[in-house]
Amino acid sequence: MKKEILLKYNEITDFNNLSDLEKKLIKKAVESSKSAYAPYSKFNVGAALVLGNNQIIIGNNQENASFPAGICAERVALFSSNTNYPNEIIRQIAITATSKKFEISEPVGPCGICRQVLLEYEEKQGSDIKILLFDTKKIIKLAKAKDLLPFYFKEDRLKKL
Ligand code: THU
């Protein structure tokens, strides 16, 4: 039987159509991307998320000469928020990338590992994490992390139900 998965998202080209909070998250993610430590890829990623208590947490990618030791911007922000505010929900995360080497003409989506981490926090908190992916021309709005990862792996698979 052939099946299809429908992905619903909003594409926005006018930044004025965003809420004040979304504009702030976007500004913070861009700022954060500028101080990423990405001397090897020269691909700077910035993330900014807002918690239930309205606190904004930022993250950017951190690279290392031992390449696998590096970590993505999204996970820096997510792990930092769950370290410092383990009982606060994550309401929304904005993600962007900039590169001095080439133009990034489409919003960049989070890598598979970051999708998995986003999803686990969504499950843990029992509410959706909204996602904003954006570049200078376009914003993609997703209602929840689950939309980014069909057939995802979760903790209940680790035990016999
Ligand atoms: N990167 C992120 O920070 N987030 C992603 O979702 C994709 C990739 C970083 C990792 C590495 O420092 C650089 O971008 C190139 O892969």
Question: What's a quick, concise take on this entry?
Answer:
25% of the residues lie in helices and 22% in strands. The protein is built from three helices and six strands. A hairpin with a 4-residue loop joins strand 2 (43-51) and strand 3 (56-60).
Superfamily at the CATH H level? Cytidine Deaminase, domain 2
Estimate the mean pLDDT confidence.
95
Corresponding CATH architecture? 3-Layer(aba) Sandwich
Flag low-confidence runs. none
Give the radius of gyration. 16 Å
What sort of overall outline do the alpha carbons produce when their principal axes are compared? globular
What can be said about the biggest beta sheet?
6 strands, mixed
Q: How large a portion of the residues is in β-strands, by DSSP E?
A: 15-25%
Structural class: alpha+beta
Helix content: 25-40%
Q: Quickly name the level 1 CATH class.
A: Alpha Beta
Determine the number of helices (DSSP H or I, runs of at least 4 residues): 3
- Distinct ligands: tetrahydrodeoxyuridine
What count of structural domains? 1
- N- to C-terminal separation? 26 Å
Tally the beta strands: 6
Name the helix and strand elements from N-terminus to C-terminus, one letter apiece.
Answer: EHEEHEHEE
CATH third-level topology? Cytidine Deaminase, domain 2
Strand order of the largest sheet: 1-6-5-4-2-3
